[in-house]
Amino acid sequence: MASQDWFEKDFYAVLGVSVDASQDDVKKAYRKLARKHHPDANAGDTASEKKFKEVGEAYAVLSDPEQRKQYDAVRQMARGGARFTSGGPGGGGAGFDDVFSNLFGGGGGGGNVRFTTTGSPGASGASFEDIMSMFGGAAGPGAGAGTGFRAPRGARRGEDLTADVTLTFKQAVEGAQLSLRVDDPMTGVRTVNARIPAGVRGGQKVRLRGKGRPGDHGGGDGDLVVTVHVEPHSVFTLDGDDLRVTVPVTFPEATLGAQVEVPTLEGQTVRVKVPAGTPSGRTLRVKGHGVKTSKSTGDLLVTVQVVVPQRLDSSAREALEKFAAATAGEDPRADLVARARRDVPGGGHAR
User: What secondary structure letter does DSSP report for 331?
Assistant: First the structure.
């Protein structure tokens, strides 16, 4: 917005505050109107959208003490109240109209001076930019530090905001549509609808484009950066796009082989074949029961854990003793000892 537009715009009226309103009053008025007319609360309402931009434009000027001072001076000039004095001895000074009449061929009487805000070639009178240049600078965008009137800041992107959300394990795996409460010191508390993608991890940050603080003068809105926390599950853990689960099996099932029921995150079960001779700790893969994204689908990784019985009745004990006698010649630790000896420095003569 060029400085000459200030002649036609009453930013105090836009915010509904008096010209002597404090900075706090200006901020409170802006926050109230920004919440009322924010696009998220008035989807498709062009009048509210226009009002929202006007409110942001007014606040950008009145919230900046330097720009507000310049704006007040320009408004005073428009009402004919501004005067420039020479500062010489005796307090003699030239009126604002006298200065312009001398500059633009008016002599001392000076009632015929006029200027335009268009700056078009051939226009009668001096343009606003021409007038400002007489005092050391230009009035348009990009005005130098020497001018008495500085143009407001141009289009500026809104700041990013942050939020935290805690998901259940199932929501993290499957994705979730959430309503997030965002407390912005500038625009107040508002609700933002957000889609959290499937497979999000604890501590991961999700960026929601355009859900942050509104931009100034047509600048784009900032983003909302959401830090995700995930509640642990009592059965499943996440490993990339795969889900992991540990399934207990009996010694006979692991030794002889079996079909066992394994739970899924969907609340159902799948039958998994445990091959004969499966050792404790071996992982079996069940296709297609992991994280489902637009690009791929993970698997369910089933880790077998052989359960040692805590109590045996007499018949079970007798059977187990017979099994121990039948396999007495086997040493499951023989290979372990051999590998340990190979790693002893100097050839491995440890006893």
Answer: -
Strand partners, 127: 116
Question: Amino acid identity of 27?
Answer: K
Going by pLDDT thresholds of 50, 70 and 90, the confidence category of residue 153 is low
Per DSSP, the three-state class of 71 is helix
Token pair recorded at residue 250: 């009996």
Mean pLDDT of the chain: 77
E strand spans, the chain: 115-116, 126-127, 161-167, 176-184, 188-196, 205-208, 224-230, 237-239, 242-249, 258-263, 269-274, 283-286, 300-306
**What is the β-pairing status of strands 237-239 and 242-249?**
antiparallel
Residues 46 and 43: their CA atoms lie apart, in Å, by: 8
50-64, 92-106, 149-163, 333-347 — which is least confidently predicted?
92-106
Tell me, what DSSP letter sits at residue 108?
T
Query: What are the beta bridge partners of residue 64?
Result: none
- Distance, in Å, from the CA atom of 52 to the CA atom of 46, rounded to the nearest integer, reads 10
pTM above 0.70, yes or no: no
Region label for 175, one of left (φ > 0), alpha (ψ between -120 and 50) or beta (otherwise): left
DSSP state of 121: T
How far, CA to CA in Å, does 164 sit from each of 60, 122, 134, 143, 181?
Answer: 29, 60, 54, 42, 10
Buried b (16+ CB within 10 A) or exposed e, 77-87: beeeeeebeee
Higher-confidence position of 351 and 13: 13
Query: Which residue carries 């499943």 as its tokens?
Result: 236
Residue 316 neighbours by CB distance under 10 Å: 11
Residue 2, both tokens: 């060029």
Q: What is the per-residue pLDDT for 347?
A: 53
Q: What share of the chain is helix, strand, coil (3-state, %, to 5)?
A: 30, 20, 45
